[in-house]
Amino acid sequence: MTEKSFKGKTVLITAGPTYEPIDPVRFIGNHSTGKMGYALAECFAAHGAAVQLVSGPTGLHTNHTNIEVKRVTTAEEMYKAVLKRADAADIWVFAAAVADYRPKTVADKKIKKAGDELTIELVKNVDIAAALGKEKEEWQFSVGFALETDNEAANAREKLRKKNLDMIVLNSLKDPGAGFAHDTNKITIIEEEATHTFELKKKSEVAQDIVDLIWKRTNG
Ligand code: CTP
Ligand code: CA
User: Fold this and answer.
1) So where does this one cross the membrane (predicted)?
2) Which H/E stretch holds residue 80?
3) Is the terminal CB of the chain with fewer CB neighbours within 10 Å at N or C?
């Protein structure tokens, strides 16, 4: 056990994409692999936390005895799984790339090819981080992620405020080697009163930087 122990703490983490079905064989998804969320789960577990990992569809696995994995597919399922586990968790980490919209109706049969255009009507999904932010208690600490292409810091700061987060991790897309599907990431961590910039690193090392700062804030 290192000095940075999360023993006795429960950490709830969302990870991976969500898939929103269109018909029995198709869905709307995104390129999230879940690597960052799983790396965080491993890191917290290694530091003694009891981890509840709510994971969208990914090819990743973990065998750590401190990590309990709940697999979900859609944003709605992820929200329900998170709601069940949130009250008991000291720290919430929203690393999932939740689909913002889902098809308004799901066809019960495969949609057949017809005509030159197809329009699919979408409706907004619940914002899991924002919904939980409204319920957050004084003793709970929440962390969000943001991936922006412009006005990065300002947009991330806005999300920090809107979702009642204590910390937001901004992923840079500008750096080659950062973001989706890479094993490296370059992050900036934004808090109300401070901004921390980091070099391009392996996702496991990025996870350690994030966990270190969360430890400081929850044990300071
Ligand atoms: N998030 C969530 N539920 C959603 C959408 C986002 O919990 N339905 C969380 C993400 O896990 C992340 C944070 O909110 O921690 C920011 O996600 P992001 O997609 O960057 O923000 P949005 O509010 O969806 O804004 P936009 O996609 O328009 O930039
Ligand atoms: Ca979004």
Assistant:
1) none
2) helix 75-86
3) C
CATH number reported for the structural domain that contains residue 91 in this entry: 3.40.50.10300
CB neighbourhood size of 21 (10 A) = 16
Q: How many CA atoms lie within 13 A of 182 on its CB side?
A: 17
What residues make up the domain containing 129? Answer: 10-111+119-219
Q: Which residue's alpha carbon is nearest to atom 28 within ligand 1?
A: 100
The single-letter code of the amino acid at 116 is D
Q: Whose CA is nearest to atom 20 of ligand 1?
A: 146
Query: Of ligand 1's atoms, which has the minimum distance to the CA of residue 75?
Result: 8
Residue closest by Cα to atom 4 of ligand 1:
127
Distance of CA 206 to the CA centre of its chain: 14
4 is a domain residue = no
Structural domains in the chain (count): 1
Q: Residue length, the chain?
A: 220
The CA 211 to ligand 2 mean position distance, Å, reads 23
Question: Is position 5 within any domain?
Answer: no
* Residue appearing with tokens 């889902």: 102
Whether residue 178 contacts residue 172, with contact meaning beta carbons closer than 8 Å, is answered with: yes
**Contact, 168 vs 156, CB < 8 A?**
yes
Q: How far is the CA of 18 from the centre of ligand 2 (A)?
A: 11
- Taking only the tens place, the pLDDT of each residue in 7-33 is 999 999 999 999 999 999 999 999 999
Assess whether pLDDT exceeds 50 at residue 2. Answer: no
- 155 occurs within a structural domain: yes
